[in-house]
Write a structure and sequence with these properties.
single chain; 485 residues; alpha+beta; tRNA-splicing ligase RtcB; 8-stranded mixed beta sheet; 17 helices
Length: 485
């Protein structure tokens, strides 16, 4: 098959797993979908392709807009979308970052084996659920005043270190060492700060979770050794973001951009792509507010990890240090960052928008923590409760192919409403228990929304990433127990 037609969009095969929507009309660049035919059939089943094509009309898009193998329809800009936009002559779009700013994942390793955990699963899942706040609304590990929120927005995980919720190694193994220096707490509204002050250290709801996993497969032993991973090892995966604070930042700035730059809005095919011109006051304010929300999200995951360490100490009656519960890596997948990339033979500063896409820098990049610089940046790809998750490393082809990015998960194939119509939460929990996966959630509806059947095949998503050389498979994990909002 050399062409693919769907939703009024025609794609042309460029090479294996690379499909292009040629530049035409108002498009400022072509668009590319990275997928096998199996995944492309699922991606084409909603408005993803049209949203991707629409995104190429954002001013300053360089090379091409990209959809990852796990892509699906989002708010204006597709989930799984990546766009490198000129930071001088282009724009920045809140909708192309997403409402949950710095939604991301962190993985913690341990020296426990699956055998050590067997027999403790129910105690562990109950204790984690009781001690880690989840669900809609307030409640966090720390409930504070606005002054503390402002310090978190400014300093990120450095604040957690000073307050005793982190150790130095946690910062060293976090993207940007857990702090965006461009953060501007003054650009974050009082309403956003008020929403954030009672949610610091909470999972939230939706697809956010904490999962205890066992490593089932190692594919690149040398890299796995560098990451501290081995077969049958217990690891912990945390997936959440900036909670109500980040959502409020995106909501407010989207509205402000629409009102302040109507001439740009009129040029775009979808108002949900509303963007502020690079260099404008609003672009700078949004970037500062977004970076502050990024810092908040890193602290949020840090506090959840801190509480997880305490739970493990009680359940297994030894210190977290004895169990070597160390941070492997924390990486964002809803973010826009100023990065230097080569375009047409010269290095340019771009706003790299990653919405449901993970940074995947290869070996040698200075942005990669020194511990991993010789092997490449860890990339964490969550699957579903009934499937494996993956640890990858940034691939050698990622900088040229995807602005240093790869997928962020399995990617949904149906809406939450449809999922609740098709699945019953208690049945899903029973089915998973038969696989020795213990799930605890705020409601059966939450479990139904996140049933394994609502997601793409994560194995296929990761296989395509590996084949393209944008994210190389290192290890695979499988759930032991899972808590969610």
């Amino acid at each position: 098959m050399d062409t693919y037609d769907a939703d009024g969009v025609t794609l042309e095969r460029v090479e294996e797993y690379v499909w292009e929507i040629p530049q035409e009309g108002e498009m400022n660049a072509p668009a590319r979908v990275l997928a096998s035919e199996e995944l492309l059939d699922q991606i084409a089943d909603d408005k993803t392709l049209q949203q991707l094509k629409n995104s190429t009309q954002l001013p300053g898009v360089q090379k091409y807009a990209i959809c990852m193998p796990d892509g699906h329809q989002g708010y204006g800009f597709p989930v799984g979308g990546v766009a490198g936009i000129d930071a001088e002559d282009g724009c920045i779009s809140p909708g192309a970052v997403g409402f949950d700013i710095n939604c991301g994942v962190r993985m913690m390793t341990t020296n426990l084996t699956y055998e050590d955990v067997q027999g403790h699963e129910e105690e562990l899942v109950e204790s984690l659920f009781a001690n880690i706040p989840s669900g809609l609304g307030g409640g966090g590990v720390v409930e504070s005043g606005v002054e503390t929120v402002e310090e978190i927005l400014d300093r990120g995980v450095e604040w957690a270190l000073d307050e005793g919720y982190a150790v130095e190694d946690d910062l060293a193994h976090c993207e940007d060492e857990g702090r965006r220096p461009d953060a501007d707490p003054d650009a974050v509204s009082q309403k956003s700060k008020d929403r954030g002050k009672n949610q610091i250290g909470s999972l939230g709801s939706g697809n956010h979770f904490l999962e205890v996993q066992r490593v089932t497969d190692v594919f690149r032993e040398g890299v796995a050794d560098s990451y501290g991973l081995s077969e049958d090892q217990i690891v912990v995966l945390i997936h959440c973001g900036s909670r109500g604070l980040g959502h409020q930042v995106c909501t407010e700035y989207t509205r402000e951009v629409e009102q302040a730059h109507p001439e740009l809005l009129e040029q775009l095919p979808d108002k949900e792509l509303a963007a502020a011109p690079a260099g404008s006051q609003l672009a700078e304010e949004y970037y500062g507010a977004m970076c502050a929300a990024i810092n908040y999200a890193w602290v949020n995951r840090q506090l959840i990890m801190h509480r997880t360490r305490k739970v493990f100490e009680r359940v297994f009656d030894r210190s977290w240090e004895e169990m070597e519960m160390d941070l492997l890596y924390d990486v964002a997948h809803n973010i826009a960052k100023k990065e230097a990339h080569e375009v047409d033979g010269e290095e340019r500063e771009l706003y790299v928008h990653r919405k449901g896409a993970t940074r995947a820098f290869p070996a040698g990049r200075e942005e990669v923590p020194s511990a991993y610089r010789d092997v490449g940046q860890p990339v964490i790809i969550p699957g579903s409760m009934g499937a494996g998750s993956y640890v990858l490393r940034g691939g050698e082809s990622s900088m040229e192919t995807t602005f240093g990015s790869t997928a962020h998960g399995a990617g949904r194939t149906m809406s939450r409403t449809q999922a609740k119509d098709e699945f019953w939460g208690e049945d899903i929990q029973d089915d998973l228990r038969e696989q020795k996966v213990y799930v605890k959630a705020q409601s059966g509806a939450t479990v139904a929304e996140e049933a394994p059947g609502v997601y793409k095949d994560v194995d296929e998503v990761v296989r395509v990433s590996d084949e393209l050389g944008i994210g190389d498979t290192v290890a695979r994990t499988f759930p032991v127990c899972n808590i969610k909002g």
